[in-house]
Amino acid sequence: MKIYLINICAAITLCLAALTSCNTDAEGTIYDINGEELAFASTQMNVEVTAADNGIIRVPVYRGNTSTESTANISMDEATIAEGIFSLNNPAVTFAKGEAVGYVELGFGEINNLGATEKYEIVLTIDNEDQLSPSQLGKIKVLAQRKLTWESIGTGTYTSELFDDSWPQPIEKAIEGNIYRLPDCIVEGYPLVFSLSDDKQELIAWDPQPTGYDGTNYGMLYFIAEGMKRQGNVLSFPMRGVVSYNGGWGLLYQGFTEILEMPEGF
């Protein structure tokens, strides 16, 4: 046993000696932190926002070298800038000495600036590649949408002029605002969502939404409401039927009205 232990110790000693003599070029490259070592946490960040976020999404930026003060310049993709909903509140993230994380702030103003069903894609980039860590995570895609919590408000009646049919329709409302959802409306698995003004007299938003109907030669049919008229509990939506085409919308149907009779007490 003693001979075995002596041999083990001798082997370890030889290995350490070999590492000391043969690996001098790798020293520092492996263990020293050079530069600022900046990175995002991942390539994608999913976030659901509410009014409690006060119009801000915070995206963390990390750094490995905290020995000095540092600044990272951040840019936002041109498509998001052109859309005009999100803004880059701080295009430069400043780190104090000893601070390992800073935050990019994306501003979107009021929560109602975001569509009820819209998903927004914002791409952020650390401008100076020389500041990046070995992970090279210098770009992140932020996927943002409103967080909505649905509760049933009863059953109404949906009448479709386009499909020449009428049926009892369960209706849900988001507790976060005057946003309504019609689950399984025309086709099972495809809800229709819209938002109304505070007095429930005007349509605020009806984002282009898939109906689930795919019986045309052009793919999925989407509904886009052109407005709303309310008479008592009855909401009438002049509608367009469109399909996704060449990065935009191609018109298939127009001049028809979809009618929703809301439950009593609406």
Structure description:
The chain is mainly beta. Helices cover 10% and strands 45% of the residues. The protein is built from 2 helices and 19 strands. The strands form 3 sheets. Strands 10, 11, 12, 13, 14, 15, 16, 17, 18 and 19 form a 10-stranded antiparallel sheet that branches. A 5-stranded mixed sheet has the order 2-9-8-4-6. β18 and β19 (248-261) form a beta hairpin. The radius of gyration is 28 Å and the shape is elongated.
How large a portion of the residues is in β-strands, by DSSP E?
over 45%
Tally of separate helices: 2
Order of helices and strands: HEEEEHEEEEEEEEEEEEEEE
The overall pLDDT average reads 87
Task: Report low-confidence residues grouped into runs of 5 or more.
Answer: 1-33
Oligomeric composition of the shown chains: single chain
Structural class: mainly beta
Helix content percent band? 10-25%
Largest sheet: 10 strands, antiparallel
Q: How many β-strand runs?
A: 19
Radius of gyration: 28 Å
Overall body shape: elongated
Give the CA-CA distance, first to last residue.
87 Å
Features:
elongated, mainly beta, disordered N terminus, 10% helix, five-stranded mixed sheet, single chain, 266 residues, ten-stranded antiparallel sheet
